[in-house]
Design goal:
Radius of gyration: 19 Å
Distance between the termini: 62 Å
Number of strands: 7
Shape: globular
Helix content: 40-55%
Largest sheet: 7 strands, mixed
Order of helices and strands: HHHEEHEHHEHEEE
Number of helices: 7
Structural class: alpha+beta
Length: 194
Protein backbone atom coordinates (compact mmCIF):
# COMPACT_ATOMS: atom_id res chain seq x y z
CA UNK A 1 0.00 0.00 0.00
CA UNK A 2 2.83 2.39 0.88
CA UNK A 3 4.42 1.80 -2.54
CA UNK A 4 1.15 2.68 -4.28
CA UNK A 5 0.83 5.85 -2.23
CA UNK A 6 4.40 6.89 -3.10
CA UNK A 7 3.71 6.23 -6.80
CA UNK A 8 0.52 8.31 -6.59
CA UNK A 9 2.33 11.15 -4.77
CA UNK A 10 5.10 11.21 -7.39
CA UNK A 11 2.59 11.20 -10.24
CA UNK A 12 0.64 14.02 -8.60
CA UNK A 13 3.84 16.03 -8.04
CA UNK A 14 4.81 15.54 -11.70
CA UNK A 15 1.36 16.66 -12.82
CA UNK A 16 1.43 19.76 -10.61
CA UNK A 17 4.96 20.61 -11.81
CA UNK A 18 4.00 20.21 -15.45
CA UNK A 19 0.84 22.30 -15.02
CA UNK A 20 2.61 25.03 -13.04
CA UNK A 21 6.04 25.20 -14.68
CA UNK A 22 6.63 22.49 -17.28
CA UNK A 23 5.04 24.28 -20.22
CA UNK A 24 6.76 27.54 -19.31
CA UNK A 25 10.14 25.81 -19.04
CA UNK A 26 9.71 24.19 -22.46
CA UNK A 27 8.76 27.54 -23.97
CA UNK A 28 11.80 29.23 -22.39
CA UNK A 29 14.06 26.46 -23.73
CA UNK A 30 12.65 27.13 -27.20
CA UNK A 31 13.52 30.81 -26.75
CA UNK A 32 17.13 29.91 -25.90
CA UNK A 33 17.00 30.99 -22.25
CA UNK A 34 19.75 29.99 -19.85
CA UNK A 35 18.92 28.24 -16.58
CA UNK A 36 19.39 31.56 -14.73
CA UNK A 37 17.01 33.34 -17.08
CA UNK A 38 14.44 30.57 -16.65
CA UNK A 39 14.65 30.77 -12.87
CA UNK A 40 14.01 34.53 -13.03
CA UNK A 41 11.14 34.17 -15.51
CA UNK A 42 9.08 31.47 -13.81
CA UNK A 43 6.11 32.78 -11.85
CA UNK A 44 5.68 29.55 -9.87
CA UNK A 45 8.50 28.69 -7.41
CA UNK A 46 10.31 25.65 -8.77
CA UNK A 47 13.51 24.10 -7.42
CA UNK A 48 16.56 24.82 -9.58
CA UNK A 49 17.39 21.15 -10.20
CA UNK A 50 13.80 20.48 -11.22
CA UNK A 51 13.98 23.28 -13.79
CA UNK A 52 17.36 21.99 -15.02
CA UNK A 53 16.14 18.39 -15.39
CA UNK A 54 12.87 19.43 -17.08
CA UNK A 55 14.76 21.63 -19.54
CA UNK A 56 17.32 18.90 -20.25
CA UNK A 57 14.66 16.23 -20.80
CA UNK A 58 12.81 18.55 -23.18
CA UNK A 59 16.04 19.36 -25.06
CA UNK A 60 16.56 15.64 -25.68
CA UNK A 61 12.92 14.93 -26.57
CA UNK A 62 12.70 17.86 -29.00
CA UNK A 63 16.01 17.06 -30.71
CA UNK A 64 17.65 20.29 -29.56
CA UNK A 65 20.31 18.04 -27.98
CA UNK A 66 21.50 14.76 -29.46
CA UNK A 67 23.52 12.10 -27.68
CA UNK A 68 24.85 10.82 -30.98
CA UNK A 69 24.69 11.85 -34.61
CA UNK A 70 22.43 9.92 -36.99
CA UNK A 71 25.00 9.46 -39.77
CA UNK A 72 28.68 9.65 -40.73
CA UNK A 73 30.32 12.79 -42.07
CA UNK A 74 33.24 13.82 -44.23
CA UNK A 75 35.36 16.47 -42.54
CA UNK A 76 36.32 19.88 -43.89
CA UNK A 77 39.05 21.57 -41.88
CA UNK A 78 39.52 25.33 -42.13
CA UNK A 79 42.36 27.20 -40.37
CA UNK A 80 41.08 29.34 -37.51
CA UNK A 81 43.63 31.99 -38.48
CA UNK A 82 41.45 32.54 -41.57
CA UNK A 83 38.34 33.53 -39.64
CA UNK A 84 36.64 35.09 -42.68
CA UNK A 85 37.01 31.86 -44.68
CA UNK A 86 35.78 29.81 -41.71
CA UNK A 87 32.69 32.01 -41.30
CA UNK A 88 32.04 32.04 -45.08
CA UNK A 89 32.18 28.23 -45.13
CA UNK A 90 29.83 28.13 -42.14
CA UNK A 91 27.34 30.51 -43.80
CA UNK A 92 27.40 28.54 -47.05
CA UNK A 93 26.65 25.29 -45.21
CA UNK A 94 23.90 26.93 -43.14
CA UNK A 95 22.29 28.12 -46.39
CA UNK A 96 22.51 24.62 -47.91
CA UNK A 97 21.26 22.73 -44.83
CA UNK A 98 18.96 25.04 -42.86
CA UNK A 99 19.48 25.56 -39.12
CA UNK A 100 17.31 22.63 -38.03
CA UNK A 101 19.75 20.27 -39.77
CA UNK A 102 22.92 21.63 -38.13
CA UNK A 103 24.45 20.56 -34.82
CA UNK A 104 27.41 21.88 -32.86
CA UNK A 105 29.68 19.40 -31.04
CA UNK A 106 29.65 19.97 -27.27
CA UNK A 107 32.40 18.18 -25.29
CA UNK A 108 31.53 19.99 -22.02
CA UNK A 109 30.45 16.90 -20.08
CA UNK A 110 33.79 15.17 -20.75
CA UNK A 111 35.90 17.86 -19.11
CA UNK A 112 35.75 16.60 -15.53
CA UNK A 113 35.55 13.21 -13.83
CA UNK A 114 32.04 11.77 -13.80
CA UNK A 115 30.08 12.79 -10.74
CA UNK A 116 32.41 15.71 -10.00
CA UNK A 117 30.01 18.53 -10.80
CA UNK A 118 32.13 21.14 -8.99
CA UNK A 119 35.21 20.16 -10.99
CA UNK A 120 33.14 20.12 -14.17
CA UNK A 121 31.85 23.65 -13.59
CA UNK A 122 35.39 24.95 -12.91
CA UNK A 123 36.72 23.23 -16.06
CA UNK A 124 33.89 24.65 -18.15
CA UNK A 125 34.42 28.19 -16.82
CA UNK A 126 38.14 28.05 -17.63
CA UNK A 127 37.69 26.60 -21.09
CA UNK A 128 34.88 28.99 -21.98
CA UNK A 129 36.81 32.15 -21.16
CA UNK A 130 36.22 33.42 -24.73
CA UNK A 131 32.47 33.63 -24.04
CA UNK A 132 30.66 36.38 -22.19
CA UNK A 133 28.85 35.63 -18.91
CA UNK A 134 25.43 35.17 -20.54
CA UNK A 135 26.84 32.65 -23.02
CA UNK A 136 28.72 30.75 -20.29
CA UNK A 137 25.56 30.66 -18.16
CA UNK A 138 23.69 29.00 -21.02
CA UNK A 139 26.32 26.26 -21.39
CA UNK A 140 26.66 25.73 -17.64
CA UNK A 141 22.90 25.51 -17.12
CA UNK A 142 22.66 22.33 -19.20
CA UNK A 143 23.17 18.92 -17.55
CA UNK A 144 25.82 17.58 -19.94
CA UNK A 145 26.40 13.85 -19.94
CA UNK A 146 29.96 12.51 -19.69
CA UNK A 147 30.24 12.18 -23.48
CA UNK A 148 30.29 14.28 -26.61
CA UNK A 149 26.84 15.72 -27.20
CA UNK A 150 25.42 17.78 -30.06
CA UNK A 151 23.34 20.97 -29.79
CA UNK A 152 21.12 22.09 -32.67
CA UNK A 153 22.17 25.41 -34.16
CA UNK A 154 19.51 27.69 -32.72
CA UNK A 155 20.20 31.42 -32.35
CA UNK A 156 21.92 30.92 -28.98
CA UNK A 157 24.24 28.16 -30.20
CA UNK A 158 25.02 30.08 -33.38
CA UNK A 159 26.30 32.97 -31.25
CA UNK A 160 28.29 30.64 -28.96
CA UNK A 161 29.58 28.32 -31.69
CA UNK A 162 31.02 31.17 -33.76
CA UNK A 163 33.32 32.00 -30.84
CA UNK A 164 34.15 28.44 -29.79
CA UNK A 165 35.03 27.19 -33.28
CA UNK A 166 37.98 29.62 -33.16
CA UNK A 167 39.41 27.60 -30.23
CA UNK A 168 41.14 24.71 -32.04
CA UNK A 169 41.82 21.37 -30.43
CA UNK A 170 38.81 21.44 -28.11
CA UNK A 171 36.68 19.11 -30.25
CA UNK A 172 34.37 21.82 -31.52
CA UNK A 173 32.80 21.24 -34.92
CA UNK A 174 29.64 21.86 -36.88
CA UNK A 175 27.77 18.87 -38.30
CA UNK A 176 25.52 19.47 -41.30
CA UNK A 177 23.04 16.60 -41.48
CA UNK A 178 21.70 17.44 -44.92
CA UNK A 179 25.04 17.43 -46.75
CA UNK A 180 27.01 15.11 -44.45
CA UNK A 181 29.76 17.70 -43.86
CA UNK A 182 31.63 18.24 -40.61
CA UNK A 183 33.28 21.69 -40.36
CA UNK A 184 36.20 21.99 -37.93
CA UNK A 185 38.45 24.91 -37.14
CA UNK A 186 42.14 23.88 -36.97
CA UNK A 187 45.43 25.59 -36.14
CA UNK A 188 47.92 26.29 -38.87
CA UNK A 189 47.93 26.85 -42.58
CA UNK A 190 46.81 23.43 -43.86
CA UNK A 191 43.15 23.02 -44.58
CA UNK A 192 41.00 20.87 -46.75
CA UNK A 193 38.92 17.76 -46.86
CA UNK A 194 40.12 14.75 -44.91
Amino acid sequence: MERRQRYFDEALADFVHDAASGGAIRHLVDLGYSLEQMMQSLSYPTPRERVRSTAYRYMLESGLLLQELPKTFHTVRVPVCDRDRLYACLQENIRKNGEREIYFACPFGTWAPQGDTTGQEEQIRERLACLNGRERDYIMGISWENRMMYHRLNSRMREIGRKLILCPGAGYAYYFLGTGVCLEGVKGEKAGVV
